[in-house]
Amino acid sequence: MIARIGRRLFGSTLLGCTAALLLAFDGHHFVHSRTGLLDLFVMFWALAAFGALLIDRDRTRLRLARHLADGEPERLRRRVPSARLPGFGPWLGLRPWRFVAAVCLGLCAGTKWSGLFFLAVFGLMTVLWDLGARRAVGVRRWVVGGLLKDGLPAFLVMVPTAVAVYLASWTGWFATRGGWDRQWGRSTRASGSGSCPTRCAACGTTTRRCTTSTSRCTRRTRTRRTRGRG
User: Fold this and answer.
1) Which domain holds residue 207?
2) Same domain, yes or no, for 17 and 119?
3) Cβ atoms 38, 85 nearer than 8 A
4) Separation between Cα atoms, residue 139 and residue 103, nearest integer Å
5) Both 45 and 123 in a single domain?
């Protein structure tokens, strides 16, 4: 993925292969790939999402260029400057690679909550790419057009999809009773330990954990009442 993404990003096969070669011999990546940590999987899905958005960017720019080329004869007849597209610009249609990126980001967040930062940053990045593309082809109202025709669809596609994939990744935990810490609340109430608020039966105080036994609480309560009467 590094080689393909680098080749598409820099437009050079040499730079893409160089990036992949550097990653293959990177000590930090070498150690993490052989360690039982979640960070490597977070980076895998984040990199896959970036690659999908990169493909979406290139296809979007190609569609805008085609719209500009198809409308050139009409603008010449109307004597409209060729460097401008009227209004908000064209709608760019369905964008499946943006959906693929949302799936990858949902899996990234499902691996570790730090994947949510990638969702926010990549969402802004893809909209800024679209704004820059509309401005480059000469759309008159490129800011409003980009926000309405690119930004809003990006939010409606990426955020719900990522949330749905995140919840789906926890299906096994929700559907079974043997998941890690699945019965934590019930076991905590049964043992009387943990961080759940509990009420002492003798003194009636509500604490995180009663550190004294019931008999000692009973004796203390009786002593306080006796002193109060005295």
Assistant:
1) 195-229
2) no
3) no
4) 31
5) yes
Instruction: Let me know: does 70 contact 137? Beta carbons within 8 Å.
Output: no
Same domain, 200 and 219: yes
Cβ pair 131, 149 in contact under 8 A = no
Q: Is residue 189 part of a domain?
A: no
Cα-to-chain-centroid distance, residue 170: 15
Longest dimension (CA), the chain: 107
What is d(CA 176, CA 229) in angstroms, rounded to the nearest whole number?
56
Q: How large is the average pLDDT for residues 109-113?
A: 91
Q: Give me 182's structure tokens.
A: 């699945």
Instruction: Check whether residue 10 and residue 105 sit in a common domain.
Output: no
**What is the value of pTM for the model shown?**
0.70
Strand partners, 198: 207
pLDDT value of residue 73: 47
Measured distance CA(58)–CA(8) in Å, rounded:
9
Cβ neighbours of residue 185 under 8 Å, at least 6 residues apart?
A: 196
- In sequence order, what are the residues at sequence separation of 6 or more whose Cβ sits closer than 8 angstroms to the Cβ of residue 18? 6
Nearest to 145 by CA among 155, 135, 154: 135
The total number of structural domains that make up the chain = 3
Tokens of 39: 């960070």
- Residue 26 is predicted with a pLDDT of 86
